Amino acid sequence: MNDFINSHLLSLKRNNFSFPEVELRTLLKKSAINKKEIILSNFDINNINKDLFNDAFKRRINKEPISKIFNEKCFWNLDFFVNKKVLDPRPETEFIIEGVEKYFKNKREKLNFIDLGTGSGCLAISLAKEYFSSKFIATDISTEALKVAKNNSKNHKTSNRIKFLNCDWYNGNEIFNVILSNPPYLNLKEYNNLDEGLKNNEPKVALYGGIDGLTYYRELGPILSRISNQDTISFVEIGYKQKDRTIEIFNEYGMKCIDIIVDYQQYERILVLMKKSRNNY
Ligand SMILES: C[S@@+](CC[C@H](N)C(=O)[O-])C[C@H]1O[C@@H](n2cnc3c(N)ncnc32)[C@H](O)[C@@H]1O
Hints:
The chain has two domains: 3-62, no CATH class; 75-280, Vaccinia Virus protein VP39 (Rossmann fold, 3-Layer(aba) Sandwich). The chain is 38% helix and 17% strand. It is built from twelve helices and nine strands. Helix 11 (215-226) crosses helix 12.
């Protein structure tokens, strides 16, 4: 291997990266001039944009996530623009999409969806591509996040079916067929113990869910109940170990849990909720 590769691998190792070869290969590939696969053993420096690589390498050494350095993160089957104002879409959130597909088999159906706390827009936009006759409302309290979501929606040609609202969850009275939400749910201890790279590069408003991590489930409970009818199905992401307490909270607001979807790590991750009928109270 040449000196360039060796010195960069050494620097990654010294900075405690667990998989330096993978890191270096990714950074080189993202900086490649012709986007060809990079092989470390026969690396040719002329195949990369050196300025782009040097800047990216410096930022990575400071623990900035690769997604934020290159402003791109893949979710479901689409690439999304991301920056420090939005949470990077996570693989576990894709289980919301799988849940929707399980309960709404007919993709031609004209459904109305709401995505509460849309961030990059990953859920609303991915589902708008799947459910091509449906309409969407996507809300966020962060104007900066909504800018990113609108831009992603434009890039994926879904702007004519997604209305973006800058508000505190949702204060309208429309009834929806499908409700989606991945609220912030880390408790104080979890937030404080986050890896510095994440803490410095993901917005706090997207991660921190109050001292016990449950603040936003308490806020969402009455909203879900208000904008549901007996046929509405809600898909809400939860933190691991939050299942019992979140089900209790939603119960208090007349929502019953009809299903729980587990993620890749076998954590109970998505609650599927419906409004209780009156005689169920
Ligand atoms: C965990 S992130 C989820 C983002 C995106 N839906 C996803 O799954 O990647 C939570 C989002 O909720 C937004 N949010 C936090 N509090 C809110 C509130 N009171 N009303 C609306 N959105 C809120 C944050 O700005 C953030 O974009």
